[in-house]
Amino acid sequence: MKNIVFLLPRTICIAVLFASCHWDDIGEPDTEIKPGTATLPVTAHLLTNAQAQMLRADAISGLYCQYFTRVQYTDLALYAYFNREWSDVYAGPLLDLETIIKLNTDVETRDRVLASGSNNNQLAAARILKVYYMAQLTDTYGDIPYSEALKGNLAPGYDPQAEVYRSLLTELKEAVEQFDNGPAPEGDVLWNGRIEAWQKFANSLRLILALRISKADPSLAMAECNAALQAEGGLIENPEDAVILFPDGLSNFVNPWPNVSGFDFYAISKTIVDIMDGSVPDPRLSCFGLPNDQGKVIGVPYGLTNDSVAAFTLQHPDWSYIFSDGWYGSTIPFFVLTPAHVYLARAEAAQRGWTSEDAETLYRAGIRTSWEQWKVFDQNLFDAYMDRADVSLAGGDALQRIGTQRWIAYFPDGLQGWCEWRRTGFPALQPTPWALNVSGQIPRRYIYPNSEQNLNRAAYEAAIARMGGGRDDVRMWWDK
Length: 480
Known about the structure:
By secondary structure, the chain is mainly alpha-helical.
C-alpha cells in the first residue's frame, strides 16, 4: 500500500517543551490538597490539557473545501449526513478553560491558584483559548450555546452568531490588555509563558476573525482589522508561529493526522492540484500530495462514487495520497496559526482599502513564508511563480487571487479553508454531481448534533428557526 504522509512543518519554529511543563504532564488534572480545605484542580495542568486539545484534524471540512477526496466509502465526499457531537469540546477544553477563569476570579479561590501564574495572566490566556475554540464551533455550526454555556445549565440557549462574534472580538481585545507584569501562566506548552507570544496570537486571531465578517458587518470588520494591527504585542510574523511540537515516546500526544479514521481512504483532490499546477507549478504541491515515480502529483477528481472512483484509480494507479514522504508521522509539528495566514489576511485588508499597508508586499510575504513553512522556497522559482498570470495581482481580480492563496495556505486545515471558500467564493468550487444531501450543493455548515434534539430541544428548535432551518445548506450570519 502507498505511504500516506501528512502535516505542516516549518523551517523555523518555536520550541514548546520546557522545564515547567511537559507533554507527559498531561492527563487527569492534578489537585491541590490542603488540610481543612476543598481540593482544587491545578490550573497549570488545565491549561496544558486545553492546549493539547488543539490537536484536531478535521477531514470532513477538508472534503467540503476540496483539499481531499475519498477513494473508498465515498459517501462522505458526496455530502452524506453525518453526526458530529460537540460535547468533547464543551466538556473538554472549554470546561478546563472556564474552570481556570472561575478559580482565578472567585475570591474564595483566586489566591490559592497563584502558583500557576498571576490571576490576570491566567485569565487572559484562558480567555484567548476560549475564543479560539468558540470561534471553531460557531464557524462550524452557526448559532451556538455561548453566553449560557459552561455555567452548569444543562439546556443553555443558543446565541446568534453575530452576537457571538462581537463578543469574541471584545474578549480578544480585553485579554491582550489584561496581561500584567506578574508571573506568567504555568502549563503553557505553546509559548512557555511568553506574554508577548500570547498577545501576538490573540491579535492575529482577532485579525482573522475580523476578516471573516467582512461581508456581514464590514464597518466592524475594518475597525477590528486596524485595531488588531495596532494592538499591544503586535502580530505573528516570521519566524514566530503558533506551533505544537511532539517529543518521541508519548503515544497519547502525537500529531493527530495519522490517526484520522479511514485516512487510508483519502486522496489529494484534483481541484487543488489543478489550481496549484500551471506554467510555473507551485512547489508546495509536491508536499501536499504524494508524487509518483515521475515526480508528479496526480489528483483524484472530487466527489466520485464508489464505482467511478474505482474506475479512475484502475486507469491511474499512480494517483496521489495526501502528503509526501517526510510530512507524515506522530512527531511532525502541528501548526495552528502561521505568519503566512497573517500576512495574507493583512494583504486582503489592505486590498480592501481598510488599512494603509501595501497589499502587494504583504501578498508576496504571505506566499513566501508559506513556501518556507513547507521547505520549498527558492528565490528564482518564487519570482517566476509570482509573475504567473493567475497569481500576480497585476491585471486581475486581486481579491480573488488573495482569497485563493489564503485557501492554499491553510492546507490541510480544512475548517479554515472551508471558511474562506464560504466567505469569498474563491476558488470557484463545484459540488459533486452525485451529491447525497437534499440541496445537492456543498454544505455551508454542519448539522447540529443529534443529542441536542433530545437534551436541549427548545433551544435547538429556536436556533434553527432563527437561522432559517437546520439543514447543511443554511448559510450562517457571516456567510454572505
